[in-house]
Amino acid sequence: MKNLLGVFNFLLLLAVYLPQTVNAQVNSQKDEKYWQDLMDLANRGDALIDIGDYNAAINVFTQVINKEPNLMWRAYLERGFAYLKIDAFDSAIADFTRIIQLRPADASNMHMADAFGYRGDAYLSKREYDQAIADLNEAIRLSPGYVNAIWNRGVAFYAKGEYSRAITDLELVLRLMPDHPQARQFLDRARQRAGR
Is the C-alpha dihedral spanning 99, 102, 134, 117 positive or negative? Predict the structure, then answer.
C-alpha cells in the first residue's frame, strides 16, 4: 500500500524547505549530516507504512518529531495516519490537531485537508459525529473533490439519522467515484430510511 505522502515528498521537504528554515533558525547548531540522518529516518518511517508495519512506523516518526517538533509537521501527518490504522484514535486526533495548530507555511491545501479529513475520520470512528462533521466540512472546503472526506461526512450524517444530508453526500461520492466500494450500499440504505 502506498503511504500518504511518499518518500519523494519527505525528500523534497528536507532537501528544499528545511535547509533554508534551519539556516535561519539554528544556523550553526545542526549540520548537513544531521538533516540527512533525519531524512533517512523519515524515509524509514515511510517504508514501514508502505508495508503496513504501523507500530514500527509510529516509533520512527516519534523519533523524527522528538528531534524537530515544530519543523516536521509531515511526520505528524504520517504518524497520525499510522495511529488511525491501529485504531489509536485519540493519538491520531492529537497528531492531526498539532498540524492544524502549526499551520505550516509549506503545507498545501491538500495537506491541511488531510489533517482535517483524517481527524474527522478519527472522530467518526469514536462516534463523535458533530466533531467529525465539522472537521470534514473544513477538509471539503480546502479540497472540494476530496472523496474520502465527503464519504465520511455522508456516513456521519447517516449515523446521526440525517438521511437527506447523507444522501446528498453519497450521491456526490458516486458522481466523483462511480465504483466506490460502499457508497451505493449506504445510499440505498439512506434512501430507504428517508422513505425515498
Answer: negative
Cell of 116: 482535517
pLDDT tens figures, 118-161 = 999 999 999 999 999 999 999 999 999 999 999 999 999 999 99
Confidence of residue 105 (pLDDT cuts 50, 70, 90): confident
Chain position carrying cell 532537501: 15
Domain 129-196: top CATH class: mainly alpha
pLDDT digits (tens, 9 = 90+) for 108-118: 889 999 999 99
For residues 5 and 111, what is the distance between their CA atoms, to the nearest angstrom? 9
Q: Which residue has the cell 518518500?
A: 7
93-112: string of b/e by CB count within 10 Å (b at 16+)?
A: bbbbbbbbebebeebeeebb
Rounded CA-CA distance 96/181 in Å is 26
Asked if 1-107 and 129-196 have one fold, the answer is: yes
The letter for the amino acid at 51 is I
User: Of the CATH numbers 3.40.50, 1.25.40, 1.10.3470, 1.10.10, which one belongs to the domain with range 1-107?
Assistant: 1.25.40
Domain boundaries, the chain: 1-107, 129-196
